[in-house]
Amino acid sequence: MPNIVYFTSTQESDTKFAEALANHLGVQARQLRSLDEVEAVLDHPGDAIVLVEAPGTILDRVRFEEKLTPAHSARVHYIYPSSRDLALALAETSKVTNFLTRGWVSVETAAQLYSRVVRARAERSAVLDTQKGNPAHQTFRLSSSLQKNWAASGLHFHLVGYGYKKQLCTKIASAADELIMNAIFDAPVHEDGKPKYAVPSDAEFDLSGKDSVSLEFSQELPVFQLRVTDFYGSLETDRTLRHISKAFDQTSEDIIDGQARPGLGLATIFRSGASLLYITEKGVRTDAAVFFLVPSDENFQFVSVL
After folding, report:
1. Element (H or E) spanning 127, and its range?
2. Is residue 55 part of a domain?
3. Do residues 276 and 289 touch, judged by C-beta distance below 8 A?
4. Could you give the CA distance from residue 113 to residue 99 in angstroms, rounded to a whole number?
5. N- to C-terminal Cα separation, the chain
6. For a tag site, which of 88, 184, 277, 298 has the least CB within 10 Å?
7. C-alpha closest to that of 7 among 128, 100, 127
8. Percentages of the chain per state (helix, strand, coil), in multiples of 5
9. What is the C-alpha to C-alpha distance for residues 245 and 261, in angstroms, rounded to an integer?
10. 165-202 as b/e, with b when 16 or more CB fall inside 10 Å?
11. Is the bond preceding residue 295 a cis peptide, omega within 30 degrees?
12. What is the pLDDT of residues 94-139, one digit of tens each?
């Protein structure tokens, strides 16, 4: 867990967010005046995290990141003005893998949600933050590749029962479907990294042992969260971030009957207003978690990959 939250922005809303985040984490917040101070802080022992107002140009970002070690970059969290700015930034190679937007309607809501991300990264597990006995917390283990359709439609049924609006139900179910498809067909690889299942998406095979896939979801307003877990840990960070960045480069030719072409699934999830958290233990497992703020008038989003 971080022992302090540093931040570089002088904007009042950013200061309030940093202070609220620190409060949820039970630590102090402290402002830094320059990127040089950020580098000095990161060189010190400890687990401090730094909220950095994202560099304005690619060159500025390269200059800042050139001195960052992998351990340093994991503790930096870039703040962008909007989801569009964030998505476009993901198209460029970056050592930093934490990105969030300044789109919050409620600073407190955004800080509470993002504190979950910080904790999950510290614990290296995207375990859903649930209250004991929460009836809206469900876990399913898929035993067959054909159950992917049942899982998404079953989730949609639950959401309708919760009273969610039809459009939001569709967005969440579509996100679950995309993550499940990735876990079943993309995550399984041989030792040489080549795909294990080069088969059509309607192929039937058992999901047992290392091929197991689990779906977990929970509603604790104002957040609906879902997690899909595979047991290969084959996620490629750079590739994942590039896929998400396609959200705002999409053209009309990329969409057929409202469905994204292959490779645009993650972009579509992000474009729908969701936030994404990926935590991978190489060769062991990947937790892919998606978060929706309810009601969806909140524009706060984040992408975090570990």
Report:
1. none
2. yes
3. yes
4. 14
5. 15
6. 88
7. 100
8. 40, 25, 35
9. 14
10. eeebbebbbbbbbbbbbbbbbbbbeeeeeeeebeeeee
11. yes
12. 889 999 998 887 899 999 999 989 998 888 876 665 555 565 678 8
Report the chain (306 residues): mean pLDDT per 10 consecutive residues: 90 94 95 88 86 87 88 92 88 88 87 91 72 68 87 86 84 88 88 82 86 88 88 85 69 39 66 89 91 76 91
Residue matched to tokens 């396609």:
246
The tokens for 45 are 């022992």
Assigned token pair, 95: 């050592």
**Going along 130-200, which residue ranges are E strands?**
138-142
Question: Sign of dihedral through CA atoms 73, 79, 82, 85?
Answer: negative
Residue finishing a domain among 75, 90, 123: 123
Q: Whole-angstrom Cα distance, residue 123 to residue 281? A: 12
Report the relative pairing of strands 76-80 and 98-101 from DSSP bridges: parallel
* Distance, C-alpha 56 to centroid of its chain: 23
The last residue of one of the domains, among 123, 153, 188, is: 123
pTM over 0.85: yes
CA–CA separation, 45 and 53 (whole Å)? 23
